[in-house]
Amino acid sequence: MRDGDRSANQEMTGLATGNPRARIIASVVIYGADLRYIGPMLASLSGDAVRLVVIDNGPADADRLATLSTLLKDWSGEIEILSGHGNVGYGRGHNLAIGRCSSRYHLVLNPDVELAPDAIFEALAFMDAHPDCGLLAPAVRDESGDLQYLCKRYPNVLDLLLRGFAPRWVSKRFRTRLDRYEMRDLINDHDTLWDPPIVSGCFMLFRTDVLKAVGGFDPRYFLYFEDFDLSLRAARATRIAYVPKVRIVHHGGGAARKGPAHMRMFVTSAAKFFRQHGWRWA
Questions:
Q1: 176: burial class by Cβ within 10 Å (0-12, 13-18, 19+)?
Q2: Measured in whole angstroms, how far is the alpha carbon of residue 102 from the centre of its chain?
Q3: Within the chain, which residue ranges are assigned CATH 3.90.550.10?
Q4: What is the CATH number of domain 3-151+190-251?
Q5: Which of 85, 137, 180, 182 is the most exposed place for a label (fewest CB within 10 A)?
Q6: C-alpha dihedral, 75 to 37 to 1 to 139, nearest 10°
Q7: What is the mean pLDDT of each run of 10 residues along the chain (282 residues)?
């Protein structure tokens, strides 16, 4: 974690008293339309075990902060809002919370995620039973209930182009190849899988000491591939586990469906990733 992330201009608003039972700090970065997801996410997140830090990368104005306060006022645990620092990017936003983290576990969470009622319980039970696990990834389903394959093998350029931008009729011709990249031969909804190379940033439950030891997110990634990079660095320091007893629903979508700006950010971050970790073309 870089010193610049700790010194970013920010305002903190505590909306509840401290929760001495909290074992997890959960950080959630929001921007723009992400506000619409906050209610469902909060309803699914256990207040007893979790202290929530919301990092608002959106415009710094009183109306936005008031809207956030209204959405968060019924939270039963402790909440902080970090705002006023501007849009510093996804990873740097989470680093603002990671630098303040003092709990045993830290949960990196997307605002467009809903947790199963027992997700936190199952996650803590697994981490407590497996001290060699420093990063846990859950089973992820989409809004239709279909399993999403968000654990990945190390990518190559062709796989990313096919998965992110190719028309459906083209990607179908490479289905066997893409299935391997998405680890469909190993990922299911009942078997724990140890050491997947890459896990999704929509839900990453870390031991805090591991997360701090690897330095949090690399702030050079503004959006996309910051979770790829962090997964690879974490794997050098600890073991990673995909645990299907921990279940979530993810409402997110691909970069290509979000417009040209996201496509440009995706390509830029992919190039950074390959320069840092090694190019693989096909």
A1: exposed
A2: 19
A3: 3-151+190-251
A4: 3.90.550.10
A5: 180
A6: 100
A7: 43 39 86 76 81 88 79 80 90 94 92 94 96 98 95 95 86 93 97 98 97 96 96 98 97 64 90 95 84
